[in-house]
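User: Run a structure prediction on this.
Assistant: Running it now.
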Amino acid sequence: MELQPHLENNNILLRALVENDFENLYNIASDPMIWEQHPNQNRYQKEVFKIYFEGAIQSNGAFLIIEKSTNEIIGCSRFYDFNDSEKSVFIGYTFIGKKFWGRNYNNQIKSMMINHAFKFVDTIHFHIGSKNTRSQIAINRLGAIKIDEIAVAYYGEPEVINFKYKIEKANWINTNKENSISN
């Protein structure tokens, strides 16, 4: 599975995150409100965000998300923990600038990533912080089902309780026929 493909629709471009993106992405991430429900609420601080960014670069699956009409950076997301034998991958570490909340960007971003991933896997997983109700609501809207509560250690950070969600390929195709991938 290609973890950093070029993905786009009419509104959004997802391209591979590169080292030179740090300052521009941090300008979005420096808003404390983005992280208020996240397990690491200090990620708006530059030194803490550097750890997140380093993990994103090392993952080889992270995207810079760009609003096409304005060329503004929306945020970041990534594929991680691809498992070829289990035909599964995780999508996560997503954050979106507050300016873009409530405008269907998260749904579009995740749908593009899900459609790409389902060309290669049968199951997509998500880790969502146990107190991150915004992300829990958003992932439920995409049809993900909560399957577990587990301790997760984000790159360079201590373990915290996360809810684990999944979407199965067959369910995605059945509920999203107009957006579904072709086999």
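Residues 178-183 have pLDDT under 50 and may be disordered.
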